[in-house]
Amino acid sequence: MGTFLFQDIVYGPVHSRRLGVSLGVNVSPADGKRCTFNCIYCECGLNEERPATTKAPRREEVRGALEAKLLQMAAAEAYPDVITFSGNGEPTLHPAFAGIIDDTLALRDRLCPQAKVAVLSNSTMVWKDAVFRALCRVDENIMKLDSATDALMRQIDQPVQAGFTCGEVIRQLCRFDGKVCVQTIFLRGERDGAVIDNTGDAAVGAWLEALKEICPRRVMIYTVDRETPVRSLRKVPKEELEAIADRVRAAGFDVSVSA
Question: Which of 154, 224, 227, 238 is 20 to 30 A from 191, alpha carbon to alpha carbon?
Fold first, then answer.
């Protein structure tokens, strides 16, 4: 299976390794990526390979598509465990993100109150007050932190902002006062002659220190599961992920492992 784009605003439901039966919502353009990261493991491919040429869907379009799907699922008595914002890029980049979250929470409460609302984000837009407040209202604000060092983050996530620093991301995640889930992928590989590996003792140690600052209510760790745009990337064995998870547990945090 190669990398792919999400063609619809609402897709699935699909079975998520970390979230259960997940109904996906894509608020990015359908024809390409729009993201503040350019992750070498992204299932949608690299930004330069699939640049978006169309606009993101309007708030009203998102609300209409989600309502139609939830009504369909309710009629079949097949409800999602979670409504998940992800898709072809960073969902919090949408200019109406806060309003879309308002609409989604209202639809959830009316049509499938047992479902959670989750946002998978790369953490780069938390500095915007409207985005921060919206993330505080969802059930699962799942924020990416693949490394606590700038060099590794630039290798793995390739942030597009020139002034990006891990320290600033960590500072922003601390604003949630623990009402946040940190999600981290662990992987190995090579690119242009350079070794990529965030599983070493120093890298994991720095990441654990960041977790102690952020104090997340939950930590999700996982590894490569699909074909990646940088083909040399390799899965980390489950036993190694569990060893990292044990260090997280020893630091006092709840952690889940998806291998």
Answer: 238
Q: What phi, psi does 254 have (nearest 5°)?
A: -75, 135
d(CA 138, CA 90): 16
- Whole-Å CA distances, 134 to 13, 118, 155, 190, 220: 23, 11, 30, 37, 21
> Does the predicted TM-score (pTM) go above 0.85?
yes
**249 is written with which tokens?**
């547990």
Nearest one of 56, 74, 70, 131 to 104, comparing CA atoms: 70
CA dihedral 50, 55, 57, 58 (to 10 degrees): 160
Rg of the chain taking only CA atoms, in angstroms = 18
Distance of CA 183 to the CA centre of its chain: 7
- Which of 182, 189, 176 has the alpha carbon at shortest distance from 209? 182
